[in-house]
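Figure 3 (text version): structure tokens given as input.
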């Protein structure tokens, strides 16, 4: 079977674009959205299961499938328009490459997702994994103006320049950002840019968790940081909890905000030297790779302490970060499916959705990436998946197996 699929892929793409993964599974590496669509069309016709891979730096490449489809060959930054504050890049382009290309023209993409800087744009968008800068600049979907999507049956869908909706009335771009590839494969993204900040200052405060979250609540509305993130001792590699603030903008504007922070909230703040600040935030981002499971909880700031208590009780403290002002908690560690399911049930009772951002296939299959948060959601997701992947070719576990 594998040999027959590999031969068919070579006929479609040429021998240079077909390889084998470490287990011998055929892997296609298309270099254009059209080539990607041809693969999906063939898979739909033949009933093959597809596992989508980016640069294999985030989700494990372990979903069961007949072939792997890698976006590594789609790595071009196709356009940058500083005047319009817009850029377009293919899904396999690494975040690091995009940052460097934009910086050459004084532009910046305000995304700082968990993981390594070589993560692909497609991975970041498909999983909607936003970092601490979501406080100042919004979640991942706020940075995506449009996209080119390849459906499971090989159609190319362009959603960009205006709101494009499917037959069910959904904004396609928002559907695919955070859809974990369950509704199609992201081939290209159109991105909202900002001017490269002239000043970038990070300050940290240490203390007990309750003291830091209380101070953050007091600061809300009095300062305007780009990020104000609470880090557990294990994640920060410190004996105490850490509250980290980051300010971006003009020199005068940043210094004004820093002074307001230092004189408010009752904490002792220390400025991180400029040559160490990037390493500090990079360490916090890579901490999400420090265990086999990473999850996020969509908790609001006023429920943060109670939700951290839930995590500590059910999963242990682990590598934990949270938005001290805008909420959202991310946890990385190792836990059995039963414990993760218990957290999801308790969180759902509190109206807090839980998303499995990365985990081995056994966990993803058992729990699903976001599960059935509310009654009836499963049917809606099922209908949408039928619209974009009628043959069920894409190997993605959006919802878990039956309990």
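Below: residues designed for each position.
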């Amino acid at each position: 079977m594998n040999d027959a699929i590999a031969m068919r892929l070579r006929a479609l793409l040429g021998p240079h674009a077909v390889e084998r993964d470490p287990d011998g599974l055929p892997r296609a590496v298309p270099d254009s959205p059209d080539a990607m669509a041809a693969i999906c069309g063939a898979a739909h016709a033949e009933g093959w299961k597809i596992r989508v891979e980016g640069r294999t730096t985030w989700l494990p490449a372990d979903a069961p499938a007949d072939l792997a489809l890698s976006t590594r060959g789609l790595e071009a930054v196709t356009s940058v328009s500083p005047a319009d504050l817009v850029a377009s890049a293919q899904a396999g382009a690494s975040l690091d490459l995009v940052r460097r290309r934009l910086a050459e023209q004084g532009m910046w993409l305000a995304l700082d997702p968990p993981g390594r800087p070589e993560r692909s744009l497609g991975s970041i968008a498909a999983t909607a994994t936003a970092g601490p800068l979501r406080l100042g600049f919004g979640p991942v979907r706020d940075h995506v103006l449009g996209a080119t999507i390849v459906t499971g049956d090989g159609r190319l869908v362009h959603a960009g320049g205006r709101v494009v909706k499917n037959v069910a009335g959904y904004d396609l771009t928002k559907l695919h950002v955070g859809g974990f590839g369950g509704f199609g494969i992201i081939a290209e993204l159109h991105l909202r840019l900002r001017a490269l900040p002239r000043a970038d200052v990070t300050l940290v405060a240490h203390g007990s968790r309750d003291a830091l979250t209380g101070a953050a609540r007091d600061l809300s509305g009095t300062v305007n940081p780009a990020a104000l993130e609470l880090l557990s001792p294990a994640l920060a590699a410190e004996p105490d909890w850490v509250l980290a603030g980051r300010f971006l903008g003009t020199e005068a504007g940043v210094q004004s905000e820093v002074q307001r922070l230092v004189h408010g909230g009752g904490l002792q703040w220390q400025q991180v030297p400029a040559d160490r600040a990037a390493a500090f935030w990079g360490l916090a981002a890579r901490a999400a790779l420090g265990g086999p499971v990473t999850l996020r909880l969509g908790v609001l700031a006023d429920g943060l302490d109670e939700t951290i208590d839930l995590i500590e009780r059910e999963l242990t403290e682990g590598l934990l970060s949270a938005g001290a002002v805008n909420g959202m908690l991310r946890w990385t560690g190792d836990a059995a499916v039963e414990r993760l399911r218990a957290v999801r049930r308790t969180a759902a009772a509190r109206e807090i959705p839980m998303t499995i951002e990365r985990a081995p296939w056994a966990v993803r299959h058992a729990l699903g990436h976001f599960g059935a948060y509310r009654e009836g959601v499963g049917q809606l997701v099922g209908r949408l998946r039928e619209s974009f992947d009628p043959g069920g070719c894409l190997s993605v576990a959006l919802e878990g197996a039956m309990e």
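The mean pLDDT is 92.
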